Amino acid sequence: MTKLQDLADVIRSSNAGASMRTFDVMFDDPTHFERVRKSGVLDQKTIGSLYGLEPEVIDVYAYEPALTIKITMPRSVMAGNPDDTDIDGKQQHAPLLTIEVPD
């Protein structure tokens, strides 16, 4: 197995409004994109378990023309809330890095 961080060229997170977070997993190599997409490792259930969310509140989209998989989910606290530890949502992608992708 190979870690997602070794197949994707960019893995990043960001706010998608004050109440949502978005993740982009981008590839330069179409074979890596297809391998990850077909493996199903970036499904709602896996992402939900990583972030402590119910799978039905997570959306996962594969956009082949851009070789990108996009994930959106609700934030646990609103951006700017005193309990918010990452107001821009830029540091939330780390759990995705070590997802194992089967050969």
Secondary-structure map with pairings?
Elements: E1 2-3, H1 4-7, E2 10-15, E3 20-26, H2 30-39, H3 44-51, E4 59-63, E5 68-74, H4 94-97, E6 100-101
Antiparallel strand pairs: 1-6, 2-3, 3-5, 4-5
Structural category:
alpha+beta
Mean pLDDT figure: 95
CATH class: Alpha Beta
Beta strand count: 6
What is the architecture at the second tier of CATH?
A: 2-Layer Sandwich
Main sheet: which strands, in order across? 2-3-5-4
Q: Report the end-to-end length measured between terminal Cα atoms.
A: 6 Å
Quaternary organization:
single chain
Give the amount of beta strand, in percent.
25-35%
Our Rg estimate from Cα atoms comes to 13 Å
Shape: elongated
Helical fraction: 25-40%
Low-confidence stretches: none
Compute the number of structural domains.
Answer: 1
CATH names the topology as: Alpha-Beta Plaits
Number of helices: 4
SSE succession: EHEEHHEEHE
| Largest sheet report | 4 strands, antiparallel
Description of the molecule:
The chain is α+β, with helices and mostly antiparallel strands and 103 residues long. It has a single domain (2-75), classed as Alpha-Beta Plaits. Helix content is 25%, strand content 28%. The protein has 4 helices and 6 strands, in the order E-H-E-E-H-H-E-E-H-E. The protein has a 4-stranded antiparallel β-sheet with strand order 2-3-5-4. Strand 2 and strand 3 (20-26) form a beta hairpin. The longest helix has 10 residues, at 30-39. The chain is elongated, with a radius of gyration of 13 Å.
